[in-house]
Write a structure and sequence with these properties.
Rossmann fold; 13 strands; 15 helices; globular; 435 residues; binds NADPH dihydro-nicotinamide-adenine-dinucleotide phosphate
Length: 435
């Protein structure tokens, strides 16, 4: 703990895992005395580097770039790249640590990693984004590769940024490989990858609801965020018969009591993916909706909540409000959106609660499928990828139930996901010796 004392998000993520995994280790002799968890919290490698670029006004800009190569016990490092001004070592180590368990849960051979930069894409021109991506990749290219470390997108990094980074990698290395996932369809991307995290989150919630004989049909759903994950969570929840009434960004949330249907979602996609604008623009076109500035959507009454924006965006008080309003299911699309206090509220209320490392694993799982297609030099159909995604989410759900269900039949998905994720990585680390 001392070593990482100034890394609060990392400590938070480790504590959550340790609280459930240490009791499991204490009951299972084979995992004892090998410093397994102690080794898992220490990244195999951390790379930090200068990223310099020239803005449109001709000024030199300096940012800091990172890649955390956390754990390669079960496969090449794999995890997204985040461009956001809040990026620092603590945030990326928490994400890389979570990623190791998440990737293990997918059943695919992927280790854990994460990277990014404290670059703020907001308000930057397309040329500035390209120059930044090229400069970032000029250094990162020395440390990654299709069999070494395969980054993907995350906050602030979507198809456009992955494309620019892939182009630069190819130029520097003179090789066309599956070194990044989330690529465009014309150059090795997988169908359903853009949809995968949001869809997977909803599939996971569907599996949880089914344990109670319930479904999305007729349910009111509150979603936070309006980026990649939120957009496709809204789409799938709506397709399954739910009514999604909110979307948000860092400026506030919109509430639309009529529900965000396909047409309205297309407008959100235009605001966010084409114009790089604000969610408040929604009310200009749909005046029945209301924009609530500076707040998060958890005060809106719902049956199901899907936090899909960012870490620590749902606190203990907000969790209490959700439960008091009758919410029966929370499935995290973002990474660690619920604070420890919020998780405690959900578990004490014994509602269905899925931690991101289980319920948002569909994104990286489909990235794994993109890697397979690249290696085979084949493309699977949407239906095929979607079916594999559904199967993977059902398998992750089953693993959580196996390791997280108590004598009274209540499933603690936090415990289930942590222990199931731990077991596979631990087995591989034990077999590979003290490295
Ligand atoms: P995007 O950049 O596409 O969208 C992020 C959304 O979250 C935006 O609406 C953004 O609003 C909002 N947001 C970001 N930071 C903050 C903040 N500090 N406070 C409030 N709102 C904020 O990212 P993604 O949709 O890809 O990622 C969302 C979450 O899902 C992250 O936690 C990510 O790690 C996780 N995730 C993503 C995966 C993927 O495949 N993309 C896979 C697994 C997890 P604004 O526009 O105002 O910044």
């Amino acid at each position: 703990a001392k070593r990482n004392a100034n890394e609060p998000e990392f400590m938070q993520a480790v504590k959550e895992v340790a609280e459930t995994v240490i009791p499991f280790i204490e009951q299972n002799k084979k995992y004892q005395n090998k410093m397994l968890l102690e080794r898992m919290v220490e990244p195999e490698r951390v790379i930090m580097f200068r990223v310099t670029w020239i803005d449109d006004a001709g000024n030199t800009q300096v940012n800091r770039g990172y890649r955390i190569q956390m754990n390669s016990a079960i496969g090449p490092y794999k995890g997204g790249i985040r461009f956001h001004p809040s990026v620092n070592l603590s945030i990326l180590k928490f994400l890389a640590f979570e990623q190791t368990f998440k990737n293990s849960l997918t059943t695919l051979p992927m280790g854990g990693g994460k990277g990014g930069a404290d670059f703020d894409p907001k308000g930057k021109s397309d040329n500035e984004i390209m120059r930044f991506c090229q400069s970032f990749m000029t250094e990162l290219s020395k440390h990654i590769g299709a069999d070494t470390d395969v980054p993907a997108g995350d906050i602030g990094v979507g198809g456009r940024e992955v494309g620019y980074m892939f182009g630069q990698y190819k130029r520097l290395r003179n090789e066309f490989t599956g070194v990044l996932t989330g690529k465009g369809i014309s150059f090795g991307g997988s169908l359903i990858r853009p949809e995968a995290t949001g869809y997977g989150d909803v599939y996971f919630a569907q599996n949880m609801l089914a344990t109670k004989g319930d479904s999305f049909s007729g349910k009111t759903v509150v979603v936070s965020g309006s980026g990649n994950v939120a957009q496709y969570a809204i789409q799938k929840a709506t397709q399954l018969g739910g009514k999604v009434v909110t979307a948000s960004d860092s400026s506030g949330y919109i509430v639309d009591a009529d529900g965000i249907d396909a047409e309205k979602l297309a407008y959100i996609m235009e605001i966010k993916n084409v114009n790089y604008g604000r969610i408040s623009d929604y009310v200009a076109k749909y005046p029945n909706a209301k924009f609530v500035a500076g707040k998060r959507p958890w005060e809106v009454k719902c049956d199901i909540a899907l936090p899909c924006a960012t870490q620590n965006e749902l606190n203990g008080d907000e969790a209490k409000t959700l439960v008091a309003n009758g919410c029966i299911c929370v499935a995290e699309g973002a990474n660690m959106p619920s604070t420890p206090e919020a998780i405690e509220v959900f578990l004490n209320a014994k509602i269905l609660f899925a931690p991101g490392k289980a319920s948002n694993a569909g994104g990286v799982a489909t990235s794994g499928l993109e890697m397979s297609q690249n290696s085979l030099r084949l493309s699977w159909t949407s239906e095929e990828v979607d079916q594999r995604l559904k199967d993977i989410m059902a398998n992750i759900h089953a693993a959580c139930v196996k390791y997280g269900t108590d004598a009274n039949g209540y499933t603690d998905y936090v415990k289930g996901a942590n222990v199931a994720g731990f077991v596979k990585v631990a087995e591989a680390m034990l077999a590979q010796g003290i490295v």
